[in-house]
């Protein structure tokens, strides 16, 4: 990559291998937090860390320059790789006239099935939350997949589910309590971590699923594995009942696999939610598409999202276009079939958190279509609520 | 004071019925439906509340959404009218009381599934050919395969693409992508057959057969390691597989208790004996065992059990007398196992012979008495995973010359047939004489009591 001094650039395309930095006013700073001189209170977690005074800085190995012009500061996050077209001004800032991303990488050849085959995407089971609201829904989901619920027509449809993919947050955030830090040791000696019971419940659920269908289990933000991306698979000693079956696959996050000839790529959602926090984009599907176009699964790592310090190469760069690109633990279900310029076809799916929405996604591998499937029981309050839901 | 009433709602769900009666789920649903119909025809005022499962699809926000819901009977029509197409409607549960919410249904299902976890898909309509529990020996191989795949990842770091991160994912995907083809054929066949019992039985049989044959082909050496690693599931499987595999440790236990299998194992022993003798480390131990087996082989089969015991008794008594190198070589664990394995009554008798011998000897000489002492015992509590210190009263012999006062804790009758007989006359005398006064001074001045004893 030739290094050029900024002065020599006039209406030329700057090289693509540059990184973008955003100076954020609100970005949580550890130094501020521990600074006692300022008597500052620790910053409460905000839903979004954007501020009008944020700036964009273009940076490569040698130099950095502020960007102005036809570019949306709030739309971009730190770590985005893009090309800018413009020229340098006298005050040392770069005036942008246009910019573009890497766009969709070339797609893999299509080897999908010719008959209906389904993959069930679920995320955010949230076991161990202490509230039993989603438990019946989870049981209904397991029963549908294992062919216990439904009449014969429904059961034969369920028989076509060739894989179940659990995309993270199998455990609830409530299992993350760290009483052991706050309380004295003698008080916490006999109490076991909340995640122990939750993992036992998970083991039973996975056992029921594994006796019937291959299951891929991805860890998520609240699951007992490492924090930094890429998260390693859950250890099979935690799931003694289910790991006896060869149909259980404990996989990493992010996860890429070929299921029946269809290439799946996705995460448990930490990458998308981090971009959500640091940009003005609100729609998870929009962010998902944006990461695909930017050619990188998680640009904010390692800046604001924990990530292993890869230094030779970055495994999160998208070199080929998957057929199904998903993210877990989204606030709601969304899906879109994206057509690329070179004939790529990608199904984008945001899988909602099951503990909140009782909804999972059924992807039809034959035609890359996706439909949500919701489960519900009944409660005392349903008497009034039912009538209001319309078509 | 107010009384508290506990209302337990008992609901019969289709799943509970299916597991309890051992029928296919669809049959259970049909049975529930027939029952409800019949009861309502017989007695129109029947207090039966039914919940239904409704599954179908409706169009929401431009795309089709599937809905699966459990509804009360009074809401059934409303739910059906909301759905554009109805895929299935069937009885979910039947109960006497009106349910406020679906929690009791969940509890019923959860309990019945929990007690049937080992065959949770036995009565379901979908069977998966790939869902065969791995024999414990297979698992470390699978783990090694994935570890190797993972170790390939750093060396491939130059490739710089997503598959590197998930080193084993593509390989796993490759393995399973071949399987679903077979599964699909199976599913298509299964769905068509609609759960006939005969079909189901052949399926479970065919499932078990490959499971056993796969297990028997695995190296038996791994099984003992995996015993510790996995829980009950592995242990159960191991017991199933022990018959074809015959690992060495299990042979010892299995042999005396299964006389029918005797010829098999003895023939195996004959084959293995020459191999055993060449091993120097455990040679003495094995010689003992092989000697025993040779002797057994020559016996008649009917008289095997008592002769075993005789031989064993002889061996033990020999051990007692020359307690030198033989004891040192043989680790304590196999011998108690072999003692225990034959019928229990001879064993306590054996022990009875053993234990009073040393105590009698010592009691006669030095007036050793058994006393209850408060001692703290430390042991590791497996459930909690921690060390627990407990204070317990324990019988202990003390050498105080005069002391005779002990709280008469009744010792186990088998163990010390002789000693209590000796002690009791003394204690009775003592108790008659002193009564409560003795009790108050029990744990204090031990030596003072000796003053009274000398009478």
From TrEMBL, chain A:
UniProt KW keywords: DNA damage, DNA excision, DNA repair, DNA replication, Nucleus
Keyword DNA damage annotated: yes
Any one biological process term the GO annotation gives: DNA repair
Domain DNA polymerase delta subunit OB-fold: 22-98
InterPro entries with a match to the protein in the record: DNA_pol_a/d/e_bsu, DNA_pol_D_N, DNA_pol_delta/II_ssu, PolD2_C
Domain (DNA polymerase alpha/delta/epsilon subunit B) ranges: 119-333
Record-annotated membrane-spanning stretches: none
GO cellular-component term (any): delta DNA polymerase complex
Primary location recorded for the protein, binned into one broad class: nucleus
Family note: Belongs to the DNA polymerase delta/II small subunit family.
PANTHER family for the chain: DNA POLYMERASE DELTA SUBUNIT 2 (PTHR10416:SF0)
Protein name: DNA polymerase delta subunit 2
Automatic annotation (TrEMBL), chain B:
Superkingdom of the source species: Eukaryota
Matches recorded under InterPro entries: POLD3, POLD3_sf
UniProt biased composition (Low complexity): 139-155, 213-223, 255-272
Region (Disordered): 139-223, 242-373, 392-455
Subcellular location: Nucleus
Pfam families linked to this entry: CDC27 (PF09507)
Keyword DNA repair: no
GO biological process: DNA strand elongation involved in DNA replication; DNA synthesis involved in UV-damage excision repair; nucleotide-excision repair, DNA gap filling
Gene3D superfamilies according to UniProt: DNA polymerase delta, p66 (Cdc27) subunit, wHTH domain
Biased composition (Basic and acidic residues): 194-208, 273-298, 421-430
A GO MF label: DNA-directed DNA polymerase activity
TM region(s), chain numbering: none
Main location: nucleus
Keywords: DNA replication, Nucleus
GO cellular component: delta DNA polymerase complex
Family annotation (PANTHER family): DNA POLYMERASE DELTA SUBUNIT 3 (PTHR17598)
Protein name, UniProt field: DNA polymerase delta subunit 3
Upper taxonomic lineage: Eukaryota, Metazoa, Chordata, Craniata, Vertebrata
Name of the gene encoding the protein in the UniProt record: POLD3
């Amino acid at each position: 990559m030739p290094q050029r001094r900024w002065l020599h650039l006039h209406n030329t395309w700057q090289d693509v291998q540059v990184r973008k930095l955003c100076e954020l006013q609100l970005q949580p700073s550890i130094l501020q937090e521990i600074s006692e001189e300022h008597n500052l209170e620790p910053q409460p977690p905000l839903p979004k860390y954007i501020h009008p005074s944020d700036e964009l800085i273009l940076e490569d190995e040698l130099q950095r320059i502020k960007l102005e012009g036809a570019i949306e500061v709030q739309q971009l996050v730190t770590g985005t790789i893009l090309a800018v077209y413009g020229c340098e001004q006298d005050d040392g800032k770069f005036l942008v006239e246009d910019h573009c991303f890497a766009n969709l990488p070339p797609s893999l050849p299509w080897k999908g099935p010719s008959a209906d085959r389904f993959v069930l995407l679920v995320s955010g089971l949230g076991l161990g939350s202490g509230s039993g609201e989603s438990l019946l829904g989870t049981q209904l989901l397991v029963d549908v997949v294992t062919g216990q619920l439904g009449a014969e027509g429904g059961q034969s449809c369920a028989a076509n589910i060739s894989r179940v993919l659990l995309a993270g947050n199998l455990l609830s955030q409530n299992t993350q309590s760290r009483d052991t830090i706050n309380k004295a040791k003698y008080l916490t000696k006999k109490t076991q971590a909340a995640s122990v019971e939750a993992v036992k419940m998970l083991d039973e659920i996975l056992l029921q699923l594994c006796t019937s269908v291959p299951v891929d289990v991805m860890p998520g933000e609240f699951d007992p594995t490492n924090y930094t991306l890429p998260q390693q698979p859950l250890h099979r000693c935690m799931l003694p009942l289910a790991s006896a079956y060869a149909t259980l696959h404990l996989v990493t996050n992010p996860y890429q696999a070929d299921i029946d000839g269809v290439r799946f790529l996705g995460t448990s959602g930490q990458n998308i939610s981090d971009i959500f926090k640091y940009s003005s984009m609100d729609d998870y599907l929009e962010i998902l598409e944006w990461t695909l176009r930017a050619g990188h699964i998680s640009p904010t790592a390692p800046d604001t999202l924990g990530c292993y310090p890869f230094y030779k190469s970055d495994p999160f760069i998208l070199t080929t276009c998957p057929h199904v690109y998903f993210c877990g633990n989204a606030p709601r279900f969304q899906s879109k079939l994206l057509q690329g310029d070179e004939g790529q076809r990608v199904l984008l799916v945001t899988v909602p958190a099951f503990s909140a929405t009782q909804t999972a996604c059924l992807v039809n591998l034959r035609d890359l279509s996706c439909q949500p499937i919701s489960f519900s029981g009944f409660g005392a309050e349903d008497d009034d609520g039912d009538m209001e839901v319309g078509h | 004071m107010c009384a508290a009433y506990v209302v337990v709602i008992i609901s019969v769900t289709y799943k509970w019925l299916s597991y309890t009666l051992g029928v296919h789920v669809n049959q259970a649903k049909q049975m529930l439906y027939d029952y409800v119909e019949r009861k309502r025809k017989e007695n129109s005022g029947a207090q039966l509340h039914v919940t239904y499962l409704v599954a179908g699809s409706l169009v929401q926000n431009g795309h089709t959404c599937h809905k699966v819901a459990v509804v009360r009977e009074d809401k059934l029509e409303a739910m059906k009218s909301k759905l554009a197409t109805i895929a299935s409607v069937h009885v979910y549960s039947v109960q006497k009381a009106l349910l406020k919410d679906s929690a009791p249904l969940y509890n019923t299902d959860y309990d019945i599934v929990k007690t049937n976890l080992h065959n949770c898909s036995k009565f379901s309509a979908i069977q998966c050919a790939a869902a065969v529990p791995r024999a414990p020996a297979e698992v470390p191989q699978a783990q090694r395969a994935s570890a190797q795949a993972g170790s390939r990842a750093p060396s491939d770091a130059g490739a710089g693409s997503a598959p590197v991160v998930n080193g084993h994912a593509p390989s796993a995907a490759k393995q399973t992508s071949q399987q679903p083809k077979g599964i699909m054929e199976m599913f298509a066949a299964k769905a068509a057959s609609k759960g006939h019992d005969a079909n189901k039985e052949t399926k479970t049989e065919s499932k078990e057969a490959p499971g056993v044959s796969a297990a028997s082909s695995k190296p038996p050496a791994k099984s003992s390691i995996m015993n510790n690693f996995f829980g009950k599931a592995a242990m159960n499987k191991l017991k199933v597989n022990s018959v074809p595999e015959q690992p060495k440790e299990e042979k010892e236990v299995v042999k005396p208790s299964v006389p029918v299998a005797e010829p098999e194992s003895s023939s195996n022993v004959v084959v293995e004996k020459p191999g055993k003798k060449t091993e120097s480390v455990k040679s003495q131990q094995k010689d003992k065992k092989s000697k025993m087996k040779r002797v057994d082989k020559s016996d008649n089969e009917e008289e095997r059990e008592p002769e075993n015991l005789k031989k064993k008794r002889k061996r033990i008594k020999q051990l007692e007398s020359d307690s030198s190198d033989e004891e040192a070589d043989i680790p304590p664990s196999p011998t108690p196992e072999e003692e225990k394995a034959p019928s229990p009554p001879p064993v306590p008798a054996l022990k009875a012979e053993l234990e009073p011998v040393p105590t009698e000897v010592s009691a006669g000489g030095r007036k050793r008495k058994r006393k209850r002492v408060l001692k703290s015992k430390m042991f590791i509590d497996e459930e909690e995973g921690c060390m627990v210190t407990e204070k317990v009263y324990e019988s202990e012999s003390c050498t105080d010359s005069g002391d005779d006062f002990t709280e008469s804790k009744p010792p186990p009758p088998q163990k010390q047939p002789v000693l209590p007989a000796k002690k009791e006359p003394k204690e009775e005398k003592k108790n008659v004489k002193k009564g409560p006064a003795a009790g108050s001074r029990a744990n204090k001045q031990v030596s003072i009591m000796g003053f009274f004893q000398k009478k």
